[in-house]
User: What shape does this take?
Amino acid sequence: MKVTFRLLPFFQLLAAIVLAGFLCMPSVVEAKQKLLSGIHGQKSVMPKSCRACHRGMTMALSGEESTCLTCHGSDSARQEMEQKGYLRLIGQVELRDIEVELRKPYNHPALAVRGVHRKFETLPEELVNAARHSECVDCHDSHAVEKNVPFRGLKGKRVGNFITEVTEEYELCYRCHAESANLPGRSTNKHEEFKTTNPSFHPVEGEGKNTFVISLKEPYVAQKQSPNDISTISCGDCHGSDDPDGPKGPHGSNNPGLLVLNYEMEDGRSESSQAYALCYECHERSSLLANESFPYHALHIQGRIGGQDGTSCFTCHDAHGSTQYQHLIRFNQEIVSENLDGRLEYEAQGYSARHGACFLSCHSVEHGVVEELLPTDGDPAPADSGGLLPPLDGGSLLSPSPSLDLGGGLQPIDDTVQRVDGVY
Assistant: This one.
């Protein structure tokens, strides 16, 4: 018996399927354009497109950070990319050296961690033992990134499990610095601190609750009234390069807490424009030292004439926000402790912008237990006073008579992320 196989119909069917696939699927060029929708897909900047990053085993062997730094690193590396035809810097395209920033003492550790990021990982992390990491691709989608929208293409978790695209810088930061189950022990949930439902907060997620802040410099305002007014700030206004001509973004800084300007957090420091440069970027130093928003600002941050130095804004305020009190009040308990009545708290007196009372002990001075007196001549308290100051205007230092105005207008920028000092 002779067996005959009829293969022609099978090959006809296979050919039809392949042809249909070619007719229905987008072209290779269209597919590439869809994948590379950001600046890396612009032929005028990257003539060889995908091959600039994906050539041979470069990325597999050296990691994505090394690949990124061939363009975003040193001038010599960038020139080599230009000579090979992978990069073309024209017009408004200007690249800075990110590697220099990443090697500064306070940084996002992109150079120290490699290969931990997972393409489809869910952030914030849901596992307590998940490895902390900060790689380039954690903050930048290389296929979608734009010059002025560095987080374009990334997803962020906002409400419950509803995940949507990141549209604000703070949403990007919250991916690692908010509800992450693997937050380091000294780290805090930044979303909890910036919530607009808090008694007070710096205006990152939305405008603040004050209608007027006397110390603010133009164009900063408490409530936006005109197009040029600025009533909200971003994480990057405080965190980023300490080099004013350096690249944007929180890659690295020589200032603790990855801050753009210096901010002293320790007690017993001399006040100066440099000591609280970060605060004075938005708040008039002259206003604070003139006690325009609080009658004892100068005393607290400058100290006594001929006596001890002042204390930091950080002693009384949390720049992110306070979950307890108005006016960003949060006491640093390394400096401040309970008073003789066992109280450590701030008590708002009504809803007036500048009235309140503190009950605590600080620098051997009791607040809210017995009346203290501010000496007008700068002399220390009498030896028999137990370290307490005699009464002024019938009121205590921070529990004054109703005639004293207590600066609720104070909104210092005194970032507390420095408590984690580069721990990610």
Observations:
- Residues 70 and 77 are 5 Å apart (CA to CA).
- Residues 136-201 form one domain.
